[in-house]
């Protein structure tokens, strides 16, 4: 198991694992606190823990373990691998299954270390792990109500495993979309928040005091049966105003259902959005990501839309699309004009 990366890309969005690691540390501490202490010398099986305190932009404790918390531990590759990247280790301990531990002297000139259990070692104090986040965390103040950004995402009920039992995890809960841009030209960032099927998306504009107000958007409300999985603000009809483009998905609709159309909403300059009919007439995609760029150098924003999956046919590779804009907010499939990227791709 490698600890080399602190963050990974998933559907084009960065995921920070520091908080997850701290929760896992607390879970480990709780597990051992409530479990009868093992007898000294009980080191059956290939069951060890390595804990390394990494110093960098943040302090963190990382747990690396092929242990019984993983149902699939029998197929883990041994020996245990620790990836450090450019981080500096300030301390490293190995905790044996009998809860005894030893400090590891880290030698950067050696790529492998062989450690053997020996009697007389002290019992590891898991309260140090348990209280680590409390000692090193920063305090935060909830300003949600004060900011006006009061929006609660609610997922619609859809049990897709009943339809596709071989799915490794649900693909219908990967929203909501979020897009930020200055939509009324006042120099302040405004926000679009997408919704699940059956719920209403929202647009918030920001004032000079940093307070947000929700706008009435009838065009968005009319499309509440679509599921918003990604979105972007970009000028799509060459009027110098940022328009909203929303990628539809959710893995519930399938085939040539209208709710799998991407959607373009033109902005009147004050944040009022009107759906552009016929923008994507022949395009149906259970999408995961959308991005606006000038692909052909004509000064007009075009689109890339990444496919997430093929509903009712998991395992098939979905299509992703490069779409050229005619300058009026109508798009045609030009994927074949970009041979390097024209192959089918899964957006993950």
What this model shows, in words?
With 348 residues, this protein is mostly beta strands. It is built from 5 helices and 18 strands. The protein has helices at 18-34, 127-130, 132-136, 144-147, 218-222, and strands at 7-10, 13-16, 49-55, 59-64, 88-95, 101-103, 178-181, 190-193, 202-206, 212-214, 228-234, 243-248, 263-267, 273-275, 287-293, 302-307, 321-325, 331-333. Strand 5 and strand 6 form a beta hairpin. It is elongated, with a radius of gyration of 25 Å. Residues 1-38, 42-60, 67-76 and 342-348 have low confidence and may be disordered.
Task: Annotate the secondary structure layout.
Layout: E1 7-10, E2 13-16, H1 18-34, E3 49-55, E4 59-64, E5 88-95, E6 101-103, H2 127-130, H3 132-136, H4 144-147, E7 178-181, E8 190-193, E9 202-206, E10 212-214, H5 218-222, E11 228-234, E12 243-248, E13 263-267, E14 273-275, E15 287-293, E16 302-307, E17 321-325, E18 331-333
Antiparallel strand pairs: 1-2, 3-4, 3-5, 5-6, 7-8, 8-9, 9-10, 11-12, 12-13, 13-14, 15-16, 16-17, 17-18
What is the number of strand segments? 18
What global shape is seen?
elongated
Rounded to an integer, what's the Rg over CA atoms?
25 Å
Q: Which regions are unreliable across 5 or more consecutive residues at pLDDT < 50?
A: 1-38, 42-60, 67-76, 342-348
Question: Largest sheet, described in full?
Answer: 4 strands, antiparallel
Mean pLDDT: 77
- Overall SS class: mainly beta
Q: Strand content of the residues, in percent? A: 25-35%
The N- and C-terminal alpha carbons lie at a distance of 21 Å
